[in-house]
């Protein structure tokens, strides 16, 4: 593997002079270190005991402080300021700094991890960076390891995109990501570093806190994580800066003329380096320098104490300043700073370098005293209460003034999240004409219907330029290739080659100001891109409307955690689950046929999912979604949602919008699309969604023609929204005794509808079953539970018993059990339709 010697990348002679006051900044660090640890410690007080992390921030304090005092640009800085991904469980240090800045009170610190019970909801502080829970503070959720590095790369890339499209000048904005060395084992952490290099993202800096430990023990006991990471990043084309040794080592390395010390540094594995720092100076003399007589001699003039005082680079403020400065000045490639630190540093021998340090949340009275002395804080012994040691906040000190002055000079306090901007002027009805008018004799799948609508919306004078289609390959599958030539694919390099299909209408065109984000085959990257674009309303004050079109099977299932974080970050936009359904994507089989993404989507509280059957439904849904997320929202509505729309690839005749279209029903989750039109009124209700509405309509016809049983057919546009409404009503009724009871929407709609209810969809039964208990009368559902298989649509539908004949069978069965048809009728139907013969399915 490609790595350089185990020493600092920037030699001492190239270090710039340090512009700050090192003594004052050391004092500031001491206060923050103390308060961070005390905050977590106090959160373990009797009756609370809510956990937290002390050792991570203790290892990273200098990494952050050099940034806060000299580099991180606040939102008021000219050019818009920096965007910082803080390591999730280093949050105590970030809160402790905000406390010193006067942005958080002592009482708020005492509410750490008690978001409900400390002074009521909102009175406490969330455990980790969660924008949704602390929306004016945290900008980026990071605590799911691996998502921070991935999202940071795509954030930096999106910043470039905004710039290159002329939407916002982001040339002076930098993205910083603070990461753990253990975290780098996540595939997402390293999986996109090639993207950052390829796109030349010199607006991006990774700082990896290499404390050599993760939660359980060493990251690479037998190896060297810094060297390993150097190889990966260097190989990918990054600028790598290692900050391994503190300044105390400089004279030793200068005196190491025969390279013996260097050889030792290169050879010793991380496990040993960790152990040294959990031991003592004499141990280091013996077990490190003592390995070679030449190095033993090299430190012969140093006392054990002086050997103990040879620091790691990540705790040397000047070495870090040097690295950060070089990173911000480097052009053409992103930079990673690999800083070697000690986990639990300054917390004393029970914490430093111990394998258990990650989980330790309390200091013993002796630890507290030692820690105080180490930081030179004038807190009397008598104040060091076992449960509630005091916070330290010197009022009107020069340190405090210095700290404020630095943040003023750098453009304001961080982290901070701001949402500016006014509602967008949204397109009116004419923009949706294509969805309303149907497809005439042409057969059009809902995927194509959506793309047609999108094309029209992208022409809108006001907001057309705000749409950001995102695709992980497969554009041709979804019909999005129609946008290649007109909107072009974003590439910072433009198109430097002669395109093979340049003469064709739908040629593949790359452009430096392209609109489409064609990510290549990375759903994880696409999700990250979508998150960056969908939070632009906050991070840049420029609302963008991302439309990420994925294979529905590779959305929630593949990148569910990214979508969870997107919900936390309050991403607004559209996720389009194309090729939806377990039987509609015929032929593809077990891996591709999606019969459960709607189930997964229902678990994400930020996600509003619709399973439309027709283009006109999609039109109303999209229009309302744009209104809610980007326009004028109604009372009680949160705009901080995203829409998951499942669309199918089966061409059908799109009907024109009915004259008496029930828009309220479409948006609420169900409308009666086809009432029973014959004879004495309906005797059963068929609830269907998406493509299954086609089967339900055919079943309605068969029921009437073959069995004389009229039925209503409903198009259920959102099972999840119906359920959410019902749960909310249920809750309201519980908490408002004595007031007139409210009735859930689904119950209201079906209250007067006679007969049993049979629900059917191309999804597993648990999807429609969400509403079962709110449906009056007999409930039964059909669905595609189980793995998919490769076959034709009819065969698959017969196999899963969701086709029209199977629906008829089920309706008759329900009617028979109510005594409304003869007991033998269902069996007769099964025989007549030869339901057990898959080959006969049409
Ligand atoms: C995806 C995921 N898996 C597991 C965890 C639990 N976890 C929290 S911190 C941690 C160890 C982190 O080690 P490292 O990245 O080296 O950070 P350090 O605390 O050493 O700076 C783990 C496993 C998590 N937060 N996210
Ligand atoms: Mg670590």
Automatic annotation (TrEMBL):
Keyword terms, alphabetized: Magnesium, Metal-binding, Oxidoreductase, Pyruvate, Thiamine pyrophosphate
Residues binding Mg(2+): 181, 211, 213
Annotated organism of origin: Actinophytocola algeriensis
Segments forming domain Pyruvate dehydrogenase E1 component middle: 429-652
Alphabetized Gene3D superfamilies for the sequence: 3.40.50.920, 3.40.50.970
Cofactors that this protein relies on: thiamine diphosphate; Mg(2+)
Protein's job: Component of the pyruvate dehydrogenase (PDH) complex, that catalyzes the overall conversion of pyruvate to acetyl-CoA and CO(2).
NCBIfam families tied to this protein: aceE (TIGR00759)
Signal peptide: none
A family per Pfam: Transketolase_N
Enzyme class: oxidoreductase
EC number(s) stated in the UniProt entry for this protein: 1.2.4.1
Domain Transketolase-like C-terminal: 673-802
Record PANTHER family: PYRUVATE DEHYDROGENASE E1 COMPONENT (PTHR43825)
InterPro entries tied to this protein: PDC_E1_N, PDH/Transketolase, PDH_E1, PDH_E1_M, THDP-binding, Transketo_C/PFOR_II, Transketolase-like_C_2, Transketolase_N
UniProt name for this protein: Pyruvate dehydrogenase E1 component
Molecular function per GO: magnesium ion binding; pyruvate dehydrogenase (acetyl-transferring) activity
Location of the Transketolase N-terminal domain: 85-248
Reactions this protein catalyses: N(6)-[(R)-lipoyl]-L-lysyl-[protein] + pyruvate + H(+) = N(6)-[(R)-S(8)-acetyldihydrolipoyl]-L-lysyl-[protein] + CO2
């Amino acid at each position: 593997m490609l790595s350089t010697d185990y020493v600092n990348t920037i030699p001492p002679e190239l270090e710039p002079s340090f512009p700050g006051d090192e003594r004052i900044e050391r004092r500031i660090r001491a206060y923050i270190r103390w308060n961070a640890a005390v905050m977590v410690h106090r959160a373990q007080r009797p009756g609370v005991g809510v956990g937290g992390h002390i050792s991570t921030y203790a290892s990273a304090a200098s990494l952050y402080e050099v940034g806060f005092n000299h580099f991180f640009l606040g939102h008021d800085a000219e050019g818009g300021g920096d965007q910082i991904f803080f390591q999730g469980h280093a949050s105590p240090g970030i809160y402790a700094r905000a406390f010193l800045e006067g942005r958080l009170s002592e009482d708020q610190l005492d509410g750490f991890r008690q978001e409900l019970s400390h002074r009521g909801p909102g009175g406490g502080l969330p455990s980790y960076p969660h924008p949704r829970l602390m929306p004016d503070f945290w900008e980026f959720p990071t605590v799911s390891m691996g998502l921070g590095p991935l999202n940071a790369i795509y954030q930096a890339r999106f910043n470039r995109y905004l710039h290159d499209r002329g939407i916002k000048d982001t040339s002076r904005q930098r993205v910083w990501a603070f990461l753990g060395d253990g975290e780098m084992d996540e595939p997402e952490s390293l999986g996109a570093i090639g993207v950052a290099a390829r796109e030349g993202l010199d607006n991006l800096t990774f700082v990896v806190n290499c404390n050599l430990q993760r939660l359980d023990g060493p990251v690479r006991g037998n190896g060297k994580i810094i060297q390993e990471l150097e190889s990966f990043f260097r190989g990918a084309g990054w600028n790598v800066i290692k900050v391994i040794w503190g300044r105390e080592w400089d004279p030793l390395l200068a005196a190491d003329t025969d390279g013996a010390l260097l050889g030792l540094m290169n050879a010793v594995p991380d496990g040993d380096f960790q152990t040294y720092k959990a031991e003592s100076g004499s141990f280091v003399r013996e077990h490190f320098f003592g390995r070679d007589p030449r190095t033993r001699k090299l430190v012969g003039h140093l006392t054990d104490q002086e050997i103990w005082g040879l620091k790691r680079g990540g705790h040397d403020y000047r070495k870090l300043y040097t690295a950060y400065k070089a990173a911000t000045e480097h052009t053409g490639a992103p930079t990673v700073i690999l800083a070697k630190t000690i986990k639990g540093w300054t917390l004393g021998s029970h914490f430093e370098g111990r394998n258990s340090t990650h989980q330790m949340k309390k200091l013993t009275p002796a630890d507290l005293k030692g820690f105080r002395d180490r930081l030179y804080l004038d807190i009397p012994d008598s104040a060091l209460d076992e449960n509630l040691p005091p916070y330290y906040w010197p009022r009107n000190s020069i340190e405090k003034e210095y700290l404020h002055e630095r943040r003023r000079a750098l453009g304001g306090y961080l982290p901070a999240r701001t949402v500016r901007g006014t509602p967008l002027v949204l397109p009116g009805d004419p923009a949706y004409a294509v969805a309303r008018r149907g497809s005439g004799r042409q057969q059009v799948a809902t995927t194509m219907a959506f793309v047609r609508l999108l094309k029209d919306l992208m022409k809108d004078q006001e907001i057309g330029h705000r749409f950001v289609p995102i695709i992980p390959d497969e554009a041709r599958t979804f019909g999005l290739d129609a946008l290649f030539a007109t909107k072009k694919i974003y590439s910072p390099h433009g198109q430097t080659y002669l395109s093979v299909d340049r003469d064709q209408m739908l040629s593949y065109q790359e452009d430096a100001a392209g609109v489409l984000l064609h990510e290549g085959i990375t759903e994880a990257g696409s999700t990250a891109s979508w998150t960056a674009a969908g939070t632009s309303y906050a991070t840049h004050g420029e609302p963008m409307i991302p439309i990420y079109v994925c294979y529905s099977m590779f959305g929630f299932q593949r990148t569910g955690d990214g979508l969870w974080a997107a919900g936390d970050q309050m991403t607004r936009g559209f996720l389009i689950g194309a090729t939806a359904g377990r039987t509609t994507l015929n032929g593809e089989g077990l891996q591709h046929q999606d019969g459960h993404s709607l189930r997964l989507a229902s678990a994400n509280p930020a996600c509003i999912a619709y399973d439309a059957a027709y283009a006109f439904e999609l039109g109303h849904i999209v229009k309302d979604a744009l209104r809610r997320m980007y326009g004028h929202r109604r009372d009680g509505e949160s705009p901080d949602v995203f829409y998951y729309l499942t669309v199918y690839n089966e061409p059908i005749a799109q009907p024109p919008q009915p004259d008496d279209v029930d828009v309220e029903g479409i948006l609420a989750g169900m409308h009666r699309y086809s009432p029973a039109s014959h004879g004495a009124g309906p005797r059963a209700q068929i609830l269907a969604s998406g493509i299954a509405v086609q089967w339900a309509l055919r079943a309605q016809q068969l029921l009437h023609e073959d069995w004389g049983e009229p039925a209503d057919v409903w198009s259920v546009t959102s099972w999840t929204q119906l359920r959410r409404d019902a749960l909310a009503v249920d809750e309201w009724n519980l908490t408002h005794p004595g007031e007139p009871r409210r009735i859930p929407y689904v119950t209201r709609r079906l209250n007067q509808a006679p007969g049993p209810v049979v629900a059917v969809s191309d999804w597993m039964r648990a999807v429609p079953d969400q509403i079962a208990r709110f449906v009056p009368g007999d409930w039964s559902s059909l669905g595609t539970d189980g793995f998919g298989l490769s076959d034709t649509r009819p065969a698959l539908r017969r196999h899963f018993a969701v086709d029209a004949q199977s629906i008829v069978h089920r309706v008759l069965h329900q009617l028979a059990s109510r005594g409304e048809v003869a007991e033998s009728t269902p069996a007769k139907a099964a025989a007549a339709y030869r339901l057990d013969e898959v080959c006969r399915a049409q």
